[in-house]
Amino acid sequence: MLKNGLNFDHKDLANGRWAELPFALQMGNIGSEVSRAVNSKARGNNDRMTNAAYRAIELFELTIENNLNYPGRLVELCRGKEEFLDYIFGENTFKTDAKKMVRYYDQFVSLAK
Known about the structure:
This protein has 113 residues and is mainly alpha-helical. Helix content is 75%, strand content 0%.
């Protein structure tokens, strides 16, 4: 269970497997859920958007917990999570461009290969 009371969808990852993955792969996996949430929002499919967003939040939280000793990463992760949540559930206060946000995470997939 996450600190905020949400249950883990990725139970095997929450049990320590996530910490074994390279940072680029962690970010790429976050990006997959971000992309699913963004695409579902654009299509007006709120249920899929919400499910993907919760999975992204879970991966953000696992990655944040896993990178507490890396201040630069921690700042990047927390800002990325904040921007994502504002775009998906908020009023897009940051004026986030969804395509640019998805492209940002896509870079990590290339790094992980």
